[in-house]
Amino acid sequence: MSSQPSAAAPAAEIGVIGGSGFYSFLDDIEEVRVDTPYGPPSDPIAVGELAGRRVAFVPRHGRDHRFPPHRIPYRANLWALRSLGVRQVLAPSAVGSLTPRYGPGTLGIPDQIVDRTSGRDQTYYEHGAAVHVSFSDPYCPAGRRTAAGTAKTAGWDLADRGTLVVIEGPRFSTRAESQWFAAQGWTLIGMTGHPEAVLARELALCYTSLCLVTDLDAGIEEGEGVTMDEVLRVFGENIGRLRTLVGDVVKALPAERSCPCPNALDGMKLPLELP
Ligand SMILES: CSC[C@H]1O[C@H](OP(=O)(O)O)[C@H](O)[C@@H]1O
Ligand SMILES: Nc1ncnc2[nH]cnc12
């Protein structure tokens, strides 16, 4: 099994991983089938260009949303992006809000993550040597800064920091769970931010989460509680401006990385060769 794209595959520097409702990006693309030691990614990778920046896109659930959050091939997606040359990843995602301060349509750029998932493959380093990456600051500071500045300029309601709690799903939270998460001071809730962020760190990639709030989670809102239809409807209402924002962030990302992310694996004995 090959872990590299063919020699003819187009290269990209920036990766975008689309979430629920975000199944395509860029018009003029070339589709690349990349196999990886972890199986195929969610879909062929779409490679194109935006304002001179080469971009690779993959929808994490697949373009027909066939992968539920606990079955997404997270390792294959990030490995495939890196094997095309990607070093900076933008990760749009639909999330719930755990505070009435952030209503539907708010953009959250979390700076912390709490993992409440279970049983997901969350590391590349399983045999041959122990690798323990630092994860105190799970997101790329330069990517977050760029995204926040771009969103502010574009007039978004913005939460430029916050803690994203990632639940196992696929069910939504009970009211009691949701109230408990909120009581911890956590502000956003989703199902895919982990292990995506840590796998990116294990590949020394920059990773920035762009969270579109689609709903107030069950503990915050009176009434029925959140539904998948509500999430997809609100996401659909915002997808145009979110696509524009992601494009603007792509254009604004620094070409040279001066953040700590490229050094995430310095001094470590890696049991496998990164693509
Ligand atoms: C479509 S309802 C719940 C679903 O939406 C979010 O997906 P993503 O993070 O990929 O935008 C959430 O994490 C769940 O997977
Ligand atoms: N309330 C919520 N809980 C978990 N994941 C979500 N994705 C969108 N809204 C969500």
SSE order and pairing:
Layout: E1 14-18, E2 30-32, E3 45-50, E4 53-59, H1 74-83, E5 88-97, E6 107-108, E7 112-116, H2 141-153, E8 158-159, E9 163-167, H3 175-183, E10 188-190, H4 193-202, E11 206-216, H5 228-252
Parallel strand pairs: 1-4, 1-5, 5-11, 6-8, 7-9, 9-10
Antiparallel strand pairs: 2-3, 3-4, 5-10, 6-11
This protein binds ligand LNRAV4D5 and adenine.
CATH fold title: Rossmann fold
Query: Domains counted in the coordinates: how many?
Result: 1
As a whole number of angstroms, the C-alpha radius of gyration is: 18 Å
| Cα-to-Cα separation, first versus last residue | 14 Å
Small-molecule binders here are: the ligand CSC[C@H]1O[C@H](OP(=O)(O)O)[C@H](O)[C@@H]1O, adenine
Task: Round the mean pLDDT to the nearest integer and report it.
Answer: 95
Reported CATH architecture: 3-Layer(aba) Sandwich
Order of helices and strands: EEEEHEEEHEEHEHEH
* Tally of contiguous helical segments: 5
Oligomer: single chain
Shape: globular
- Strand tally: 11
**Beta-strand content estimate:** 15-25%
Q: In terms of per-residue confidence, which ranges show pLDDT below 50 for 5 or more consecutive residues? A: none
- According to CATH, what is the class? Alpha Beta
- Describe the biggest sheet? 11 strands, mixed
